[in-house]
């Protein structure tokens, strides 16, 4: 018996998310039929049937009305992502495409959190249908399955505004239209349009149509799953430049894209966008200085530096170079880039540019007050005053982010004593920043297959914490919320 309206609303949302995940399996099922991969297709059909059943049951019994409070919205986000990840493992389990229970869970968590970490030495070992499901999980996770749910929640009778506050990566969810449902729909149309455009452009290069579709999904989501063991380095210079452009686009605020569609000067008027581009530019310059001797020609050297800087700052995790071969100073630059991220309102992970901007403005203001104790000044960001609650939230987020990173690295150190400090620390940072490959023994040319089950679970949890930007998971783990 479902006792409270809150529980009924949670049931509606979680079941709707699982049902949406089941619908997302349809392209992989069609692909399996085209390539006559009967075993994997049957596994996908069985998983989809279970998901649709759960969705219908939730729709029937979850009849609560009303809107969420903030804490309920955060908890709904965390629960939905956890349940979606568990559901997403079913195709791998039913087909036996990945061994055991932990590897499918790790791969699915890396998919929906757009992390790009993998246990597969050669993704080509998977069937076309499983490869597409793997790419689809990143595509769905990139924009946020909760945002899609916001578009349909009003029809189910549950409010979606608090869910948007929980899912939106910026300080507040930006309304491009008066209704959140319409905003979510526009976001998804833009997301779909960019994916289709990228797939078409990639297909004109050296990628086959299937490869173009898969990489279109994992690039726009800044996820980083590839169909090749050599990642994007296995493809031509044309493909790499195209991917660079779309990584930059995808790590830019989608709301800003909408504004710039009507008024292109919106890009230049956005302080966050200019800061984001400046950070990418500095990273590219540092990588160019550090990797210049690794290229065979000027164009190759420039391309590798630009690609590495963009993929690290945006958190996509594609690679054209082996980061493990970097000099110690460049390894430190790479590690720092894992904490940066793109703009708020994009598919990128990590700390995000707007938080860095507010943090540095706060530090500058504090230093000025030391020199001028009587100074009265209003700090602004994007032309708006920075409210104290926003400063407190950013500082708390940064402290929690570093805390989770440190605890994760310590735990990995206990469970994986054979790994060096660079490998352990970068693995924790990469998981929190939703990047994928780490440094040292866990670099782009390696996988996470050699780690123990405990370590994989820790990294999967860090991926979820990083993707949900900490607060939903922390609130979900608060005993007071469960007592309520």
Q: Termini separation (Å)?
A: 17 Å
Rg (C-alpha, Å): 22 Å
Percent strand equals under 5%
Walk across the major sheet and give the strand order.
1-2
Series of H and E elements: HHHHHHHHHHHHHHHHHHEEHHHHH
Q: What's the pLDDT, averaged over the residues? A: 84
Topology, number of strands:
2
Largest sheet entry: 2 strands, antiparallel
Provide the low-confidence segments as ranges.
148-173
Question: In which range does the helix fraction lie?
Answer: 55-70%
Brief sketch in words of this structure:
It is built from 23 helices and two strands. It is an all-alpha fold.
Description:
With 484 residues, the protein is mostly helical. It has a domain at 5-191. The chain is built from 23 helices and 2 strands. It has helices at residues 5-23, 26-34, 38-61, 70-88, 90-95, 102-112, 128-143, 145-156, 161-167, 180-203, 209-220, 237-250, 254-262, 266-269, 271-291, 298-313, 328-337, 353-371, 388-415, 421-432, 453-467, 471-476, 479-483; strands spanning 380-381, 384-385. It has a two-stranded antiparallel ribbon with strand order 1-2. Helix 19 (388-415) packs across helix 20. The radius of gyration is 22 Å and the shape is globular. The model is unreliable at 148-173 (pLDDT under 50).
